[in-house]
Amino acid sequence: MRVTSNKERFDNFVAHSPAFFDDLDADNLDKKHQRIVAQAYAQFEAATGRVGANYRSWGEQSDLTVPAQLSSAYLKAQGFGLGIAKWGYRSLFRRAQDRNLRHVLEDDVALIDELGGGSLIDENPAHLSPGAREFYFLKGRSVSMRFLRYVYLLKRMEIEALLPESGVWVDVGSYYGGLQGLVRKYHPKTSIVMVDFHHQLARAYIYLSQLFEDATHVFPDQVDAGIDLRSLPEGSITYVPAKNFDAIADQKVDLASNFFSFGEMRRPICNGYMDSDIFRKASRTYLANRFVSAPWIEPTYDTDVTVLDYQRQERKVLYFDTLPLHFFLQIKREVLGTSRMRNLSSPYFEMITAPAEM
Q: Which CATH number is 214's domain given?
């Protein structure tokens, strides 16, 4: 069945997700993800169609902000009135923050260019991606903070040869599928498997089905204990609810990844993923997370996970460094009773591993 609107895409996904509204019952969810799931369901109950209008930025999660800038593309994406209002507010009250944001975007573009990924920026203007509402034109190049993150991760995957032809890639915490869209474009034979909450997978389906309507989309009701990831069609896109992770957890894949969310999870859930065969036996793992999830001076997340938890005895480290993306970002927030522009309480690392016996 071909669908023509985002409302139809959402309804189609829900029809193939028998447990779509059950994620609130998940045990051991950290406070952030409790809020995310609750707000997502509240959004759906209030106006189901809204998921199609703004599925990349909502409530607890966003496509990340950009500096104030007037352009016809931005006004069209935001709506003229809202676009002018946001520009006026940021110009008056967020000038310092916007100056830092612009510098961060400039740094991110420069480091991607340095890696040899400049063509990926030029070939994928942020404002032309489905559902884009937050983007910035930087010397004629259309970028956004989150989309530059995806471009960087793709380029690192290519440099480290993490995506073998016709391989299987499992990513935990895929959000709306922005990285998956880039990987599918440049590596069309890779079988992509996403693990996330139902509502996030619905957003990813809305996004990816617009880009790859003719791809094989494997829905949650097709994921059971007997599914063989190696037997999935080339270039297929599979949507695995987090509650169903056990259905695939005992398999070996070419690449297993997590970007940013393991460090937000409580230890039992994080360990559940890290101790699975998906991550223990993968030909390669690629992780990017905070060095310390909850520093004592600013305990950002209600977990005690640190960088020490991501290395396993059965695996060797092939690459480890500080994640350079958004490195100099500053956000105005209150710490120790004082509100001012500050860097994040913990920087991020990126780590690539392989089985120790290789």
A: 3.40.50.150
